Each structure stands twice: as structure tokens, then as C-alpha cells.
Amino acid sequence: MKHARPESADDLATPAGGRAAATPAPVARAMTTFSPADEEKRRGVRRMKLTATGLLLFVAVVYVLAKWASHEGAGGWADYVAAAAEAGMVGAMADWFAVTALFRHPLGLPIPHTAIIPTKKDQLGVSLGEFVGENFLSQDVVRQRLRAVGIGSRLGVWLADPEHADRVTAELSAALRGALTVLRDSDVQAIVGEAITRRADAQEIAPGIGKTLEKIVADGGHKRVVDLIVTRAHDWLVLHDEQVMDAVQGGAPGWTPRFVDKKVGERVYKELLRFVTEMRDMPSHPARGALDRFLTDFASDLQSDTETRARIERLKGEVLGRGEVQDLIASAWTSVRSMIVSAAEDERSELRLRVRASLLSLGARMAVDAKLQAKVDGWVEGAAVYVVTTYRGEITSLITDTVAGWDAEHTTKKIEANIGRDLQFIRINGTVVGSLVGLLIYAVSRGLGA
Question: What are the C-alpha distances in Å from 248 to residues 227, 260, 268?
Fold first, then answer.
């Protein structure tokens, strides 16, 4: 009896047990088509079927002729031939039934335990999934196989080759460029700005500034800044003497004589110039000492004075809240992204050269360092074991659901096309072996009867 084909895609995807398969429809459709290679295999199966059937017909003819010859008194040999041919027919028919029962009901009769593949397809898929899960996706098997491969040493030797290091560097650069291209600047800018602002708000900066300032003063690092300031101040006073004296005279009362204002302005300018010159030329100038004490006290207040620390926090909040600062933080991503993309595209950039050198160095170490190889092997084994133990159910269900989604009729035809030719040899062997066994049994029976 020929199986009725499903009438819809839903029927195709529904196994015999009634559970809808999770496999997408395109997978099921793939089992309803035959490639040129499949068609050639089917032609080969048909040729072998004709051969096996022809052999069956041959022994049947031999049996008829041998029985006729025995009836006509040809002698005892005819009985031997008839016995062999009869057993050959039995063997051929038995093996024909066995082979046919795998793919369909023999003679269309719904005999129990026949048409095994189309009726047991889903169960075979489940069994196959369980077999793969137990024998290929177990923790011990994965660890043993990966340990035998020696990924660490092989990867080290592979990476130590400059050509391979160049290839990996190029692939990493392409992946980096692709990732940066996919990311939307506005989203990243918002995330970066929020992260920086949140981190700055959460972290009090006054104690850190105080410790840094304290260390700078203790090491005398601020003296170079003071030297620069007083030097620039001295040079500025020399170049702008008229402006300084005019400023002093402009602040004098209106009732004072002009010559007095001029004398006062000149005096103030000279004293100011003398003060700045002495500070520049005298490392032990009292003003420098006063500045050192001021900075030391300020550093201490930044770390311990509550009011000073609160003022710094308020100042920090005001600065971070300004639109110009937020725009600067957000625009930092654009600059960084442009810099990274340019470096990734340039084969001679410092970024790619450093990555290449690091890969070569890592490969050279991994090729000879047994401890590093063991670490890499352990990482790979751990990752692989995690994947197979965590997702083993999903992997095996992919097998079972895929098989469940196949169309039974076409699945049977495909399997028969791939293994049917070899199965026809079973029929041929059954004919030959049956004939020999029948001949042997007949000969032993005659011998014992004699």
C-alpha cells in the first residue's frame, strides 16, 4: 500500500506522533528534491534490483528444469540441482522481503514491522540524537579528543608563521572596522558621556587631587611651574612697563598732582619688577616659601577639610553640567573611533604592527612553552565542555527535529538511493548462499539416509 502524501506544509512538518517539528520548512523541502547525483544512484539501485531479480528468476528456471529432468529419469544429480535451486529461491525471497521491508510494505501488504524507515523515521531521529549526545557530546569524549589534538602547540606553531600572523591581523582589523561601522555614533556617544558623568559624580575627586598635589609639592615638582610663571611675568612687565604705570596712575585720586601720580606709578612698577626678578633669581625667596606653605595647606584641606571638599564637589558638578563639557565628552568617541578605524586600515600603523608582533610573540611562546600550551588547552577544553553540556539538548533536538520535519516518502527514497545498491547484494548473496546451504543439507540428508 502506497503512503498518502501530506497535503500541506504543516502536514509535512508534523511527525507521526503529532508533535509539530521545530525545523523550518526549507529543510523539509530539501528532502523532497533529488540532485543529479541522487538520480544516478537511483539508476544504480534499479540496475542492481534487476540483477538480483534476474538471479532469482534464473534459479527458478533451474529448479523447474531440474525437477523436469529428475522426473524424466535423468539421474540423482538432478535432485541435487533442484534442492540447491529451491533453497536459492527461498534465500532470495527471504532477503528480498527483508530488504523491501526496510523501505516499504512488501507487495503493498500492511504486514507488521515492515516499511520500517518511513514509519519509524521520527524514532530513528530521536535515537540518532540520543546516540550523538551520549557518544559525541559527552564531557569525557570532548576533553579526550581535544587533549589528543593538542590545540595549544598547533596554534602556537601556526601563529608563529609571519604569513599566518598577517592574516589574523588583517581579519581582526576587518572585524574591528566592521564593529565600529555598525555602532551608531549617537548611541555610543550617549553611553560614553553617561558613563563618564556617572563615574565622576560617584567618585569624590578632592582627596585624590589633594594627595597628588601633596606629592608634587613634596617632590618639588611645582617649582618648575613657578619658575615658568615668574619668568613669563618678568618678561611681560619688561615689555609692558608703560601699560603698568598708566594703570597705576589711572587709579590715583583726581586731586593729586600729575607728577606725583607719575612718580608713584614708576615706583610701583619698579618695586613690582624687582619683586618678580628676585622671585625668578632666588630659589629661597620668601614668597616661594609662602607659596609652598599655601600649597601644602591646600593639599591637606583637600583631603581632610569638609568645607573645602564640598566646594570642590560643587565646582565639579558645575563644570560637568556645562553643555560645552558634555559636548566635549560626547565628541571624544568620534575622535577615538576615527583614530582606531584609520589605524586598522593602515597596514603600517602602530596598532597593526603591535598586534602582529604580539601574535608572533605569542605563537613563538606557545610553540615551546608547555605550561602555556596546557593553559590554552585547558581554556579550549573548558569552553567546549561548557558548550556541549549546556547546549547538548539544543544540539540533539536539532537532529531529531530536522529528521521529524523530513517527508517520509522522499526520505525513504533518498536513503534507498544511497544504500539500496549495497542492499541488493544481500539478495544476491542470499540466493547464492541459500543454494549452497540447500545443496549441503540435501547432500547430508541423502548421505545419512543411505
Answer: 26, 11, 8
The long-range contacts involving 167-174, CB below 8 angstroms and separated by at least 24 positions, are: 168/359, 169/352, 169/355, 169/356, 169/359, 172/355, 173/344, 173/345, 173/352, 173/355, 174/344
Sole residue written with cell 615638582:
221
* The residue type at 294: F
Domain of residue 98: give its range. Answer: 31-119+407-449
Number of domains in the chain: 2
Work out the average pLDDT over 22-38. Answer: 57
Reported as a single tens digit per residue, the pLDDT across 342-401 is 888 888 888 889 999 999 999 999 888 889 888 988 898 888 888 888 888 888 888 788
Among residues 378, 365, 395, 396, the alpha carbon closest in space to that of 146 is found at 378
* Across 7-11, 105-109, 362-366, 436-440, least confident range: 7-11
- Tell me how far apart the terminal alpha carbons of the chain are, to the nearest angstrom: 49
Q: Has residue 391 been placed in a domain?
A: no
| Residue 419 located in a structural domain | yes
The model carries a pTM of 0.46
